[in-house]
Write a structure and sequence with these properties.
The structure holds 2 protein chains of 2 kinds. Chain A is an all-alpha fold. Chain A has 15 helices and no strands. The radius of gyration of chain A is 27 Å and the shape is globular. The two termini of chain A are 50 Å apart. Chain B is an alpha+beta fold. In chain B, 41% of the residues lie in helices and 15% in strands. Chain B contains 19 helices and 16 strands. The chains are: A mainly alpha, B alpha+beta. At the A-B interface, helix 2 and helix 14 of A face helix 1, helix 17 and helix 18 of B.
């Protein structure tokens, strides 16, 4: 028994301290291996993101109607039209509602993430409850909330249970409709923000809280001086995602109202151009312009809030 | 060259590869000839349809079985598509869009020969069938509708009677007055917009022709101003505006529900809707399911008379066509011919027949009694109208403009009707001039 162990140990020893340089083949394999793993996702990314994008860029220089086999190269005419039609950009006012909603969303997500990162009863249950809406398909959410906002629907019934008799058409006026739709989008995306924040908060070393508590810091102090700076990169990322998301809202208003009653967003307008009026070329140009606007906004944000390293200790 | 450059170039190259589109129209101009000997026609054909309900309940299979009695060697398969227009439009970028399909509205008439096989010359077909000009390009016909439809108001007879209205209104003002009577004397919603569904509002465009009793109404859209005083569309839009403005519609149009509106109309919770003859059978079914009398479902023409008579336009429903790339064009053609001429589809749907010499369905008995004049709209300028509509982004075949009109009428949108219609006129006429007419 002792013999064999010794033998084994003796045999292992020479290899351990100085590993022999890997052979050429091993090195090649090491270089290639990560790419082998990446083949599938990269192929998907290229096929479903970059190839269509490139096609769209190509279409944006044509007068294609989306189905006819003939299309003509029209140069920058579509872009010229997009930029000389102020009515195309009016719909961005609707994004204001979603921007306001994303402020609410971030504050709520931050609040819940902070509370649930401490020891609270049923915290895993609440985490699940908050994250759940994000898992539901957007189309399903749209239909569910149509019933929710219906005249005499869920919202009205619930309000009447607590004694509030409303006779309000929730999707009836532009203001009310956009607020309702933005609220749905808060309900849907709160979970994602929440999980991002929670992950970031939990990566803050626990000793810091203990130390802070010993120094007499209350919860608010802990949040202000430990959590907030600790999750700053995630917070910036969320803000960027929220703003670009607000500019490109689509599925919830499209399914629930189809853009009627002043709820039309830029993307709905683009879809209508392409599929209602068969101006695929113009719609592609509009989509590219939206992409550029989002890239620009993101770039400005990055310049305003540089991505600096967090150092808590 | 470091690794990053290599990678960037590889991705770049991969991006450039799919950058080309467009299919050649090699089969352009093919004919789908009528079968000589039915027992020799063979093949498996796929029929694309919007009637998902008939696919699901097996009705179409029964038609196919009947068809097989004449054409034993043809196998017919059906594919029901809910979002027909957008789905088929995308599929038509390939060669694989069924053997028999309904011509999507987006396809330009001039492109028909690229996508569909011809069914014969217009000269020969118009002897037997109506509406050949709707799909005729260069003297050849590319589609045939199995049913004809006439737009009109589906209404609940019992409710209208309870409100004390026994005669069809003859003017828009009278119509609004009748709806007011319904609101005052019954619990029913006088008019249901079906605002959310959208297409229910765009169907108001089909008042065109019925108001002025002009079979050349489509030409007027292509050459004139659809919203000039007294023009068909203006009269229709004004009526819709008045109905909404007087509060004669459902309380919250933004959450209206089409499927629900059928039984509700049958039961008398809703009094009236602007639809078409095709809807009658669906509402009667809804009545049977709800356990109420299907005979309460009535149908009336647009409230306008010319020379003391009502006018009702008739037009084709979706036209069936043969895919130009189909391997079994003869079998596909046989299906279209049989379905139009021999099947019971028209009677089953209480629809108007596309054959010139066939009788009217029984539901339109009141039409005969009142001497309603049927006019067939001339579609020579149909393609032009669509072109102007797309160019101007007015969307007379799309719901947005009437949704805005309804919002305007119920005060959810600022502005006046005159300004709103004037803006439409301006955009329409500008585009017409741009397109050179």
């Amino acid at each position: 028994m002792t013999d064999t162990t010794q033998k084994a140990a003796v045999e292992v020893i020479p290899a351990a301290p100085v590993p022999a340089p890997p052979s050429r083949r091993t090195r090649v394999w090491r270089g290639v291996t990560p790419w082998l793993f990446l083949i599938a996702p990269l192929a998907l990314l290229v096929t479903f993101t970059y190839a269509p994008l490139l096609n769209m860029v190509a279409y944006s220089f044509t007068d294609w109607d989306g189905v006819s086999p003939v299309l003509h190269y029209t140069g920058a005419e579509n872009y010229q039209e997009v930029f000389t039609r102020p009515d195309l950009f009016e719909v961005f006012w609707v994004s204001g509602y979603y921007l306001a909603a994303s402020v609410v969303q971030i504050v709520l997500a931050l609040y819940f993430a902070t509370v649930l990162s401490f020891n609270v009863r049923f915290r895993n249950f609440f985490k699940g409850v908050l994250f759940f809406p994000y898992l539901i398909n957007g189309v399903a959410i749209g239909f569910v909330f149509l019933y929710f906002f219906q005249d005499g629907g869920t919202l009205d019934s619930v309000l009447s249970l607590i004694g509030v008799k409303t006779d309000h058409a929730w999707l009836g006026t532009p203001g009310s409709a956009n607020t309702s739709l933005a609220a749905v989008s808060v309900w849907r995306y709160l979970g994602l923000n929440f999980v991002l924040f929670l992950g970031a908060i939990q990566s803050v070393p626990g000793e810091l809280y203990e130390a802070a508590e010993l120094d007499g810091a209350n919860r608010w102090h802990q949040f202000r001086h430990i959590i907030a700076p600790g999750i700053k990169p995630v917070l910036t990322l969320t803000v960027i995602l929220s703003i670009s998301g607000s500019l490109s809202v689509f599925e919830i208003p499209y399914i629930m109202t189809g853009g009627a009653t002043g709820t039309e967003t830029f993307v709905i307008q683009t879809v209508n151009l392409a599929f209602r009026f068969n101006k695929t070329g113009l719609a592609s140009a509009a989509a590219i312009v939206l992409l550029l606007i989002i890239l620009l906004v993101t770039w400005v944000q990055r310049r305003l809030v540089p991505d600096d390293k967090v150092d808590l200790v | 060259m470091n690794r990053r450059t290599v990678l960037a170039m590889a991705v770049g190259a991969a991006l450039l590869i799919p950058g080309c589109t467009g299919t050649g129209g090699s089969s352009q101009g093919a004919d789908a000839k009528a079968a000589g000997d039915p027992s020799k026609v063979s093949g498996t054909i796929k029929v694309l349809t919007v009637r998902t309900d008939l696919v699901q309940d097996g009705t179409l299979k029964k038609y196919a079985a009947e068809f097989n009695k004449t054409y034993p060697k043809v196998k017919v398969e059906f594919e029901g598509i809910t979002d027909y227009e957008s789905e088929v439009k995308i599929r038509m970028n390939t060669e694989n869009y069924g053997d028999v399909l309904l011509i999507p509205a987006v396809i330009k008439k001039s492109d028909y020969p690229r996508f569909f096989a011809s069914l014969g010359t217009q000269q020969e077909r118009e002897k037997k069938y109506r509406f050949t000009d709707f799909t005729a390009v260069g003297g050849k016909v590319y589609g045939q509708s199995p049913v004809a439809v006439s737009p009109g108001f589906v209404y609940n007879k019992r409710i209208w009677k309870e409100a004390g209205v026994t005669q069809w209104p003859t003017t828009p003002a009278e119509f609004v007055a009748d709806l007011k009577a319904i609101k005052a004397k019954t619990d029913a919603i006088p008019y249901y917009t079906n605002f959310s569904a959208g297409w229910t509002l765009s169907s108001w465009t089909s008042v065109d022709g019925a108001v002025t009793c002009d079979s050349k109404a489509t030409d007027k859209l292509a050459e004139g101003d659809p919203w000039a005083k007294g023009a068909d569309l203006r009269v229709g839009d004004q009526l819709l505006y008045d109905i909404v403005h007087e509060g004669l519609i459902e309380k919250d149009p933004t959450t209206s529900n089409w499927e629900e509106s059928k039984p509700r109309t049958a039961k008398g919770e809703i009094a009236t809707q602007w639809l078409g003859t095709w809807a009658i059978v669906q509402f009667q079914d809804a009545a049977k399911k709800a356990g109420v009398n299907p005979d309460d479902i009535g149908f009336m023409p647009f409230p306008a008379q010319t020379g003391g008579k009502f006018c009702a336009t008739i037009g084709p429903d979706y036209n069936q066509a043969v895919n130009v790339h189909s391997k079994y064009k003869e079998a596909a053609r046989a299906w279209i011919d049989w379905f139009t001429d021999k099947s019971t589809y028209v009677e089953d749907n209480l629809a108007l027949p596309p054959l010139k010499d066939a009788p009217l369905p029984s539901v339109l008995k009141p039409y005969e009694d009142q001497g309603v004049k049927f006019i067939e709209l001339d579609d020579t300028q149909g393609a032009k109208v669509k072109q102007i509509d797309n160019e101007s982004e007015v969307g007379i075949f799309a719901p947005e403009y009437r949704q805005k009109l309804v919002d305007l009428a119920r005060g959810a949108r600022k502005g006046s009707l005159d300004d709103f219609l004037a803006d439409l006129s301006r955009r329409w006429t500008d585009s017409r001039k741009n397109l050179g007419s």
